[in-house]
Structures are given as structure tokens and as C-alpha cells.
């Protein structure tokens, strides 16, 4: 089918007897400023088979011995394949249910997506796109780890917008009839995860057919109130964006030496991911606030007012939030001034795109000013109390607005939202070959 982005993979999984609580390790891009976390993980794993030996925690990415670490990773991958530590399952998908301390689990489907349907450059109309800007400078060091690897282990989360919960959620009403692949605690406060294997067949065909409905133009236009001018967006990369971008960069290298026929089913063309409904109750999407340093409050607010007025909007400072529609507003505070910055008739679909566009323009001409991205309003307020600082409080992000923002505004600004705490991020469990 023309719009099919997914592929039923042949997943690799540890042989029976491997301690999965030591095998599964959190995504390598977490705890990048906390080497103690990774030292404790290393101590916990010991000599047991583990994905820790197949990945490079980014806390070590700038170390002098990174090349030696990378070579050891590649050797261990080969070892795990050759000695049977990893076995290849029949083609199929895995349903995952992850409890990480909340009142409900996160549920998803592990399958493959076609990297030919993914692009991360701004303005792309590909069917799989990132939610936030990709920092291309982050790709080369990660690409070096992938080059020479025979396997990939995913921490990528792909989001779908299924408010009626028709695709993923019904599958979990039938888990008693599926084969349980794993059921284990996760180390270092990671909670508990269970996985069920669904072999390729009638059930996976139903999954793919339902996913393909997300690509239907009429349904898409009705959902977002858009026209054919807006590119379809059935899949958005919600987590692991730079891992996905690295997989794409590697595939672009590999495909250069392949014929069109050889490209069709090459394993490097497909990336293993977990597909999650953005409306899953476990997903808490929190705004990331903005703090400015080295600024004069009146000058900054005046510059922003001029910028938005120049863009055809109406911008001003108010004492309280307006009641009118078609307006984006941002409470702000500083050492000697507070209020609400208002933008009426904004040309951007969601508030974060509005404020970040203005701040980017300001920072481009005020190079001594700095910006930071802050979790928690209390932290923003405490920072803003210091002279020369100003904080903007961003509104909560509606789940519907995340897809809508990408559809209408393009890739969202960096640090738009946070999706869960560090310990809730995906742990490596499944693997897939990327070589012929």
C-alpha cells in the first residue's frame, strides 16, 4: 500500500535463562550529567549479558576512550549473536506494558518503521517527522557508534494521534491469548515491564490496516481542520529523535551502494521503535518554561512587542490574562516587573511556537543575553527574582495541539515539552539486525 510506513520485523531477543532485569538498561541519552548512575548500572550488571554492553551511554560520548568503547560494543554484538545470547524470533510485533510509578501503565507496540518515510529537515512533508528540531551536530558522534554495528536497540518512541483509542488499546484486552515474551522488573527505579509476542498474521495485518487509516487524507483533514496544503502526519517522533536521525543518516550511507531492488528489504532501511498513542493516560506532557538572563525587562518586552506587531499580530503587556479567543498569552516575572505578555491574532498554531519565534529573533540581535529551558514554575520564579533575569511561564500543552502544531507550524521549537521523567524513558529490551 502506498502510504504504509510500518514493517513487521524479525525481532532479536535474549535466550531463555538471561536475567532480563540486568539485560534491560535505560536509554543511553539519559542521566548524561550523572556518571554515578551509570557506574551503579555497571555494578548491577556485572558479567551478566546486558544491553549496557551493546550501547554507549552518552555520558561517555566525549571521553578520550570513546573509540575503544565503540569497538568493544561492536565485538560484543557479534559475540551475543554467535554464542546464542540473542536469538531471532519469527516475524512479529511485541505489545509492551510499562509501569513506572504512575496510576496507569504506558502501552505500546514494538515494530519497524520505514526510514524512507522519515525526514528531519525543516519543511519536510514526510509521513514520519520529528516533533522538535533536530540538532544535526549531534548526529556524527552517534553515527560512529552505529557504523560497524550489526544490531540496533531502540529507545525511539513514535507517537500516533488516536483519540478514540481504536488501534493500540483494544489489543490489551486480549493479552491472555498471547504468548508472554517477558515480564520483569527494571533496574534503577525503572518500574516493571511486560511484553507479549504477536506473530505475523491476521492480528498484525489488522494493526497495520488500522495504522494506515491515519494516512487517509479525508480523515486527516477532518481531524485537524486543515486542507490538502498541509502535509499528512500520521507518525511523530516523540522520544529518541536523534537516535532516529542517526538511523536515517546511516541508511543514507548504506543505500548508496545498493541497487533499488537491494534497498527494498535491506534491514538498515527499517528502524525498530515503540508506537504509543499520545492519548495514552500514562503520557504526561508538560511545558518547558523559558528563563532569560542578562536582559532588561522593559527592553525585552518592548522588543517582543515590536516583533509581533511587525508580524501582523497585536502584542502588549497586561496585568492579567485576557478572556478573548484567538490569543496566546504568557505570564512573566522579573525582579521588578510582572504581568502577562499577550499576542492577539497569532500566526502560529500553538503558543510555544509563538513565544519561541519572538525570543529567537530577540536573541539573534542580543548576543549577550542567554536563555535556558526550565521544568517547574517554581524554579522559573526563583530565577526571575534575580536582577537581569526574566521568566516566561508557558501554558499546558493539550495533547491534540502537539500534532496540530507540527502540521501547521512545522517542526516545533527545541525544548517544547517534556514527556515523563528520566526513569520513565524506554529501556532497551528488543534488538534487530541492521546488516545483511
Concise overview:
This protein has 436 residues and is of the alpha+beta class. It is built from twelve helices and 23 strands.
Mean pLDDT: 94
Total strand segments: 23
Strand portion: 25-35%
Largest beta sheet, briefly?
9 strands, mixed
* Helical coverage, percent range: 25-40%
Descriptive key words:
nine-stranded mixed sheet; alpha+beta; 436 residues; 25% strand; six-stranded antiparallel sheet; globular
Describe the protein.
There is one protein chain. The relative contact order is 0.18. Helix 4 (139-146) crosses helix 7 and helix 9 (297-310) packs across helix 10. The strands form six sheets. Strands 1, 5, 6, 7, 9, 10, 11, 12 and 13 form a nine-stranded mixed sheet that branches. Strands 16-18-17-20-15-19 form a six-stranded antiparallel sheet, with helices on both faces. The chain has helices spanning 20-23, 35-45, 66-82, 139-146, 202-213, 217-224, 241-255, 260-264, 297-310, 351-365, 377-384, 399-409, and strands at 6-7, 12-14, 25-26, 86-88, 92-99, 106-114, 128-130, 151-152, 157-160, 179-186, 191-199, 235-239, 270-277, 285-287, 289-293, 314-318, 327-334, 338-344, 370-374, 389-392, 417-419, 427-428, 432-433. The protein is α+β, with helices and mostly antiparallel strands and 436 residues long. It has twelve helices and 23 strands.
